[in-house]
Amino acid sequence: MLDFSILTENLDMYLLGFKNTIMSSLIALVASLILGVFVAIMRIAPIKPLNWLGTAYVEFIRNIPLLIITFFFFLGLKLSGLYAGTLALTIYTSSFIAEAIRAGILSVPKGQMEAARSSGLTYGQAMRLVILPQAVKIVIPPLGNQFINLVKNSSILAVVAGLDLMYHGDLISSRTFVVFDVYIFVAAFYLILTIPLSLGVGYLEKRLAKSN
Amino acid sequence: MLKKKKWLKASLLSLLAVILLAGCGGGKSTDEGKEGGSKETGKDVLSQVKDKDEIVFGVKNDTRLFGLKNPSTGEVEGFDIDIAKALAAEILGDENKVKFKEVTSKTRMALLNNGDIDAIVATMTITEDRKKEVDFTDVYFDAGQSLLVKKGSDIKGIDDLKGKKVLAVKGSTSSINIREKAPDAQVLEFENYSEAFAALKSGQGDALTTDDSILYGMADEDPNYELVGGTFTDEPYGIAVKKGNEDFVAELNKALKSLKDSGKYDEIHDKWIKH
């Protein structure tokens, strides 16, 4: 059976890691959502240079490994492991979020924008009042995926001594020489975060579908 | 009502997932309980080695002077590698009857106990705790823990570490020792020596700690760094084999002794360790 003494004897290390993982994930989640929305807007705004900038950002960031972005902030900009990892996570996830949001906005039929504009709304108003409320419903499921990925990807912090859950799992494993059980408990802690997140996204999805 | 049911289903599902995971853990640990040597046959490691006429050694690939992959040839080179080859020459009669698998301080024990490798020759210190998990041969190299700092640093020894950031490698004895010897230092642990050294170079820490043998390799690579304060622990390196393989340990000890007697050991030592 699972050796629960591993969990109880190293509980302070697990909890410290859990705390840092929650903190890093929460910050990265909020920040990448904001950044992602901005980039998505840049990509669809009717201003060409902004489109190019947005496209360049997305294509550059999402096509290099998260690990390299993390090393860049850690070794290049000399941020501490926790900050470097969180920042890398934010940047990396924002490129995927931007794509999800852009896809959501584009999936609203073109006629909606045309009708809104011809009824006298400005581009900004039409976006805000007509297009975005419809896009949100479409965007929720892929956004949920990105958030769950973000929480799991936060384990990248372990590589740069970011003091997260995975880092402490590594330490416990190297102290006790137990590999499997230690990481089972690590996985359980990740589940404590990701399952409510999944359920929350599912709930939102249903709520918004009903308002249709 | 329907909504409630859905929630119930969802939470039951997640509970099931946790139980399933726990179940996996259980299965694995009972597996590990069934001791008895090698992976497939259940034979002890020595007879398995003789059967396949080859020894699989777990070696470092990132440790200068001991086990470092040469990017131009793709071969791993170092003191540990030459010792492993010489041991194979003693036991199987041919130094080419070896296979090297990369291990890190973090992975080596698990790989050995899984049967992926027959023996660890990877700068591994003999400790009482580790003796409970694996069997060790006689000492094949004497190292001691030290500190590597940038030249001109105000750290002159273990007593100057108060409030400093010290970098170490996960799974190494040095990361445990340093916490005892310098409890006021902040210890940050990395995956391997190259990452820890890269972190030191980029100013993420004030000192890097591990065995002097490994630190000399780093100072050799970048002369802006030097060892300070001498050694503050004894780190006798041993070759580790899976628990319960006394025959294999005896065979390795016999081979080690004959290497030392024949002068081959000194030859290898002098080739790599020059300080």
What can you tell me about this protein's structure?
The complex is a heterodimer of chains A (212) and B (275). With 212 residues, chain A is mostly helical. Chain A starts with a helix and ends with a helix. Chain A has nine helices and no strands. Chain B has ten helices and 13 strands. In chain B, a hairpin with a 3-residue loop joins strand 2 and strand 3 (67-69). Chain B starts with a helix and ends with a helix. The interface between A and B is medium-sized, with 29 and 36 residues.
Biggest sheet statistics of chain B? 5 strands, mixed
Largest sheet of chain A: none
User: Quaternary arrangement of the chains shown?
Assistant: heterodimer
Helix content of chain A: over 70%
Task: Provide the β-strand percentage band of chain A.
Answer: under 5%
Q: Tell me the number of helical segments of chain A per DSSP (H or I, 4 or more residues long).
A: 9
Q: Strand sequence of the main sheet of chain B, in spatial order? A: 5-1-6-13-7
